[in-house]
Design a protein that fits this description.
The complex is a heterodimer. In chain A, the strands form 2 sheets. Chain A has a 4-stranded antiparallel β-sheet, with helices on one face. Chain A has a single domain, classed as Folate-binding fold (2-Layer Sandwich). The relative contact order of chain A is 0.20. Chain A is of the alpha+beta class. Chain A is 17% helix and 29% strand. Chain B is α/β, with parallel strands linked by helices. Chain B is built from 11 helices and 18 strands. In chain B, the strands form 3 sheets. In chain B, strands 1, 2, 8, 9, 10, 11, 17 and 18 form an 8-stranded mixed β-sheet that branches. Chain B is globular, with a radius of gyration of 21 Å. In chain B, 54% of the residues are buried. Classes of the chains: A alpha+beta, B alpha/beta. The structure holds flavin-adenine dinucleotide and zinc ion. Zinc ion (ZN) binds next to loops of chain A.
Chain lengths: 107, 415
Amino acid sequence: MLILECPYCGVMADETDLHGGGEAHLKRFGPGSSDDEFETYLFHRKNPKGVHFERWRHVSGCGKWFHAARNTMTLEVYGTYPAQTYEPPKELVAKIKKKHPEWGGYE
Amino acid sequence: MRRYSAFAIAREAARYHTGWERAWKSPKPKKKYDVVIVGAGGHGLATAFYLGKNFGITNVAIIEKGWLGGGNTGRNTTIIRSNYLQDPSAAIYEKARSLYETMSQDLNYNVMFSPRGVMMLAQTEHEVRGYERTAHANALQGVKTEFISPQRVKELVPIMNINGPRYPVLGALWQERAGTARHDAVAWGYARACSDMGMDIIQKCEVTGVRQENGVVTGVDTTLGQIDCDKLAMVVAGNAGHLAEMAGFRLPMESVALQALVSEPIKPCIDVVVMANTVHGYMSQSDKGELVIGGGTDGFNNYTQRGSFHHVEETVRALVETFPIISRLKMLRQWGGIVDVTGDRSPIIGKTPLGNCFINCGWGTGGFKSIPGSGWAMAETVAKGEPGSLAGEFGLNRFTEGRFIDESVAAGVAH
Ligand SMILES: Cc1cc2nc3c(=O)[nH]c(=O)nc-3n(C[C@H](O)[C@H](O)[C@H](O)COP(=O)(O)OP(=O)(O)OC[C@H]3O[C@@H](n4cnc5c(N)ncnc54)[C@H](O)[C@@H]3O)c2cc1C
Ligand SMILES: [Zn+2]
């Protein structure tokens, strides 16, 4: 069972209390953008084997969206952080990098 | 290849079974092949088979990181049906289903195709309308299905509780010639036939890189060294995104875990496949007597081949509600596979941004049933360099052009 700490209410929430929202920090493209940009934004996903930054919603709790860094090969959770950001916090990236020097970092 | 037959069994019985030969060879990889296929699951092996059978291309290697059929092909609940909604889906799934009818004879290998009938329960008004629509669509597509009454459902499956308090059964979409097959045997049968045509099946060999020159593929790096090829076919299901990354492109797809479980064996009690999308569970009985049960997909990206426990709980709850007599059964085994889910729940077959590199993936939770049809279509795509009529609509460009083949309803529960 996946357990994530909600960064707003501090609750250690079971995955049954949460709802996954897919890849985090997608760059949004709107009207006027090219077909390729639109396709990338809507459908292309990193879907990495390893470190993944993703969105979660604390549905059975405070109801807010937040972010998590998790490993898709081991299910290890590196940390969670609030949604009001365009990229993961530097400390979190550094922490993951220290643990997995072979990881390419956040791009 | 020595043929399997009743005579062969008698002959071997008379000499203490000393004469059986290995079903397929385990060769060392050659330096170069006309076609390299990555992934020896059902779809990769079927692609190889039809490359040989329909196009005479036999200088082919099928490279597998684990053992052949050890991916989703050996992990699914073996449901075969073709009652999809959209025309391109109906065409390829019905092609596949019809190839299953004669597969044992074609491969000289018993794949135990059992067209016992598949029933998809309608338990809400919405589902009734949806399935009636599908039945009409199927009639136009030449796929034989019908919408049946609750009484007929009860006749076909006496152990079902059709008057459940939450979701009484209002009818069902019934496909009589749908059913199940032995999943491992499908992979083994194709492997034996491919090996017999002179193709190399190379197991325990992982592809770690894709080589290219001027935008055209030239080969792959593997744990057994470099292998060159004129054409490359990636047929690796949940790992497709990972392979694509090696080749330098991204896919409109995500990898998630899907689970299944089987009960202890019991006497025959259900001789059709039942799928209940609203309560979310489906069940059939294997020849060994185990109830084969499919669960749901997890809501997050995952490569661990392990699913979350709460799905098991939800699935079992749904099935106990539908089939009260199974409430005291013990579950024997549970496992997961990594399925490749696309935005419109339809597969991807076709060309990639890299020249001479083709892809077949995105079958998600329901690609066992399509193995022969997919192999047929993929072989044509690889051989001719362009998708033919079966694969045509399933290209990657449909995501750029917004030409989706929406099967999210047909794929309702995972199967
Ligand atoms: C629990 C479960 C139940 C299901 N139930 C049904 C059902 O009832 N009916 C139905 O139609 N479908 C069902 N499916 C879906 C079906 O199993 C799949 O769609 C289908 O088996 C996919 O076949 P494949 O050949 O594409 O992939 P796989 O069988 O997964 O084969 C891909 C192969 O590629 C190999 N590979 C990956 N990466 C590499 C690499 N880098 N180098 C070399 N080899 C590599 C893997 O080891 C694997 O063997 C189910 C799936 C699951 C998990
Ligand atoms: Zn919260």
